[in-house]
Amino acid sequence: MSRKRKFLPSPAMAVALIALFVALGGGAYAAIVVTGANVKNASLTGVDFKKRSLHGSKLRADSIGGGSIKESTLGPVQALAHQAVVTGVGVLARGRGVSSAVRTGAGRYTVVFDRDVRGCVYVATVGDVSAAGPGTGTASVGSNPTNVNAVDVRTVTYNAGGNPVDENRAFHLLVSC
User: Fold this and answer.
1) Contacts by 134-140 with C-beta closer than 8 Å and gap 24+?
2) Looking at residue 86, what is its pLDDT?
3) Are 28 and 98 members of one domain?
4) Given pLDDT bands bounded at 50, 70 and 90, which one contains residue 143?
5) Do 170 and 111 share a structural domain?
6) What does the alpha-carbon distance between residue 111 and residue 170 come to, in Å, rounded to a whole number?
7) Shared-domain flag, residues 85 and 54
């Protein structure tokens, strides 16, 4: 056997090396050639993507419609809004993420949510539970000292002398975390 023949690859090795280079180069070629212009609208669905492969940092602002995102898929980084509309007698008219609502005294209410809301922002306004006009008076909010899932709300109106009077008023409460 000659010394030169010793360094030449066998035909099987040559075919294997060519196949390897083609396979490795195909992905790089596809990454360069296949762009968003090559993809038809509405042709890709959720099953076409590997789980946890898309993150907010990979998407442009307002590039995905709100109707296409399930709330349960939002991670803890995303803001979560709970809301409650409570009648003047402390009955929950409607809401989201609310466990209960109760009137604890004249113009004082406690609204309990299905999660810890201590680190959240609370906003409340006096308002009717139906399509009637806005209510008069003010609503103030604060964390409940004994329940981390609860928010205390106080509704106040003012008498003819301009003094605050606790009064049972319907209100709207928004909790944003």
Assistant:
1) 135/169, 135/170, 135/171, 137/167, 137/169, 139/169, 139/171, 139/173
2) 94
3) no
4) very high
5) yes
6) 13
7) no
Total domains in the chain come to 2
- 93-130 per-position pLDDT tens digit: 999 999 999 999 999 999 999 999 998 999 999 988 88
Distances (CA, A) of 133 to 92, 95, 98, 128: 19, 19, 24, 7
126 and 91 both lie in a single domain: yes
Distance (Å, whole) CA 80 – CA 71: 9
Q: 19: which 2 tokens?
A: 């196949």
Give the residue carrying structure tokens 């038809």.
Answer: 40
Is 64 contained in some domain? no
Tokens of 121: 């922002």
Least confident of 46-60, 119-133, 135-149: 46-60
pLDDT > 70: percent of the chain: 68
Q: 131 lies in which domain range?
A: 81-176
- Retrieve residue 102's tokens: 């109760």
